[in-house]
Model the fold of this input.
Amino acid sequence: MMPALVVELKWNQSAEGAIQQIKDRQYTAWLEGYTGNILLVGINYDRKCKTHECIIENMSWNSQFRLSSAKPFE
Done:
């Protein structure tokens, strides 16, 4: 089964902030009952430096259908 991707893009902020926004605003709620992997992707583009930063976290559901603690995707 293919993983579900939840992606948040930021401009001149942080990839960590993008991941936190996914969690705080519960963007994954519509995936309740999904049995595959859920990848949270936070991407930030720094306009001044012309670089980007990306964080990917692998999430899973616990028995109460809430997201468990995240760990970095490797």
About this structure: Residues 15-24 form the longest helix (10 residues). Residues 57 and 73 are 5 Å apart (CA to CA). The mean pLDDT is 83.
